């Protein structure tokens, strides 16, 4: 059924000689919309300044750093044993969170152990814990996530970061088994991780933040790198985030993507280590003419994981040196 139409008068785009234009817009009757939820109110920023102007005894305190705090929060990070996931885990723990790193190896890496010790020395109140988990194992992910949420009575942040890249093969020759494997880890794995975490958040009425590591490859095709399943999978991850975000928005659970550009990690080293000239090819495709370092994702994950981003959801935040601008 087509919506009712209403005639409105507008002066937009009209010259003085033409006078106001009559346009017809299809308008859903406003009374059919549900009542809007109230926007939250906090005595911070401009509100605090205006309050202080009328209340001289009001203690002026800067709150912006505190908005990024994850003190007493609990987080899980898949694929956190190395690379981007390990950096994300350190950021969350630096901000005060108890962070559970979920990854495949029976024993965590030396890099993880060094980070765990470093976080302990920083004494932020945060910590790193390690659990073996495979993101493609739905019941396993549900179990480990539930155990963590039960232990602390909460789960605030979930980063579905585990991923694999696969070989470069021309599209008409790409092995179907590899295609399936990459979709299984990079798409089904993200779905199962988010599903497990959101279930715990909903049951506990937690205003959680769920973050997917997608990729700029979800929006563009990597020139000269024939990675058809990887780019396809990452595009699916971007849509997955939007779909989850739209279902749980009124529960104040936010779901966003971080889409890195070319970052030097174990994953990309598999190519850069074999053919160093690939670096020039990748770098030349962004306006900054360089690859990114893992630490350059720190601010982005701090923003999305914390209360600094309470009105940001369904978003794909690209951190790619402007690669997608060209
Ligand atoms: N490095 C880049 O340039 C780049 C760019 C864009 C996106 N990404 C994405 O960032 C994420 C992390 O990649 P990285 O570069 O840090 O590489 P990485 O290889 O260092 O990290 C990937 C991690 O995922 C884990 N993992 C793989 N399969 C798993 C499974 N089934 N269950 C649990 N853990 C699993 C690995 O053990 C590893 O610790 C990936 O999703 C990747 O696609 C990387």
From TrEMBL:
Which Pfam families does this one have? Answer: adh_short_C2
Classification via PROSITE patterns: ADH_SHORT (PS00061)
Which keywords accompany this UniProt record?
A: NADP, Oxidoreductase
Which residue intervals are annotated with compositional bias (Polar residues) in the record? 7-16
Disordered as annotated region, ranges:
1-20
UniProt-recorded Gene Ontology molecular function terms: oxidoreductase activity, acting on NAD(P)H, oxygen as acceptor; oxidoreductase activity, acting on the CH-OH group of donors, NAD or NADP as acceptor
* Keyword NADP applies: yes
Cited InterPro entries: NAD(P)-bd_dom_sf, Sc_DH/Rdtase_CS, SDR_fam
- Family listed: Belongs to the short-chain dehydrogenases/reductases (SDR) family.
PANTHER family cross-referenced by the UniProt entry? BENZIL REDUCTASE (PTHR43008), CHAIN DEHYDROGENASE, PUTATIVE (AFU_ORTHOLOGUE AFUA_4G08710)-RELATED (PTHR43008:SF4)
Q: What is this protein called?
A: Sps19p
The protein's organism comes out as: Sugiyamaella lignohabitans
Q: Which gene encodes it?
A: SPS19
């Amino acid at each position: 059924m087509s919506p009712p139409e209403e005639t409105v008068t507008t002066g937009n785009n009209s010259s003085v000689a033409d006078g106001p234009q009559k346009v017809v817009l299809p308008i859903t009757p406003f009374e059919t919309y549900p009542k809007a939820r109230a926007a939250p109110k906090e005595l911070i920023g401009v509100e605090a300044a205006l309050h202080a102007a009328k209340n001289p005894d009001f203690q002026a305190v800067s709150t912006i750093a505190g908005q990024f705090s994850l003190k007493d929060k609990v987080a899980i990070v898949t694929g956190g044993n190395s690379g981007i996931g390990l950096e994300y885990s350190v950021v969350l723990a630096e901000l005060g969170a108890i962070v559970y790193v979920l990854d495949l190896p029976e024993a965590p890496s030396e890099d993880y152990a060094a980070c765990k010790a470093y976080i302990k020395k920083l004494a932020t109140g945060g910590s790193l814990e390690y659990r073996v988990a495979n993101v493609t194992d739905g019941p396993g992910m549900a179990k480990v996530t539930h155990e963590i949420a039960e232990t602390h009575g909460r789960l605030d942040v979930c980063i579905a970061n585990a991923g694999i890249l696969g070989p470069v093969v021309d599209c008409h020759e790409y092995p179907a088994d590899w295609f399936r494997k990459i979709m299984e880890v990079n798409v089904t794995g993200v779905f199962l991780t988010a599903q497990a975490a959101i279930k715990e958040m909903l049951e506990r009425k937690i205003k959680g933040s769920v973050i997917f590591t997608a990729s700029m490859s979800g929006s563009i095709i990597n020139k000269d790198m024939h990675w058809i399943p990887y780019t396809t999978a990452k595009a699916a991850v971007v849509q997955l985030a939007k779909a989850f975000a739209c279902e749980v928005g009124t529960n104040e659970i936010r779901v966003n993507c971080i889409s890195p550009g070319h970052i030097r990690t174990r994953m990309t080293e598999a190519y850069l280590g074999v053919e160093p000239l690939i670096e020039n090819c990748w770098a030349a495709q962004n306006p900054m003419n360089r690859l990114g370092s893992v630490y350059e994702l720190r601010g982005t994950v701090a923003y999305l994981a914390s209360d600094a981003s309470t009105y940001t959801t369904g978003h794909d935040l690209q951190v790619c040196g402007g690669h997608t601008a060209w």
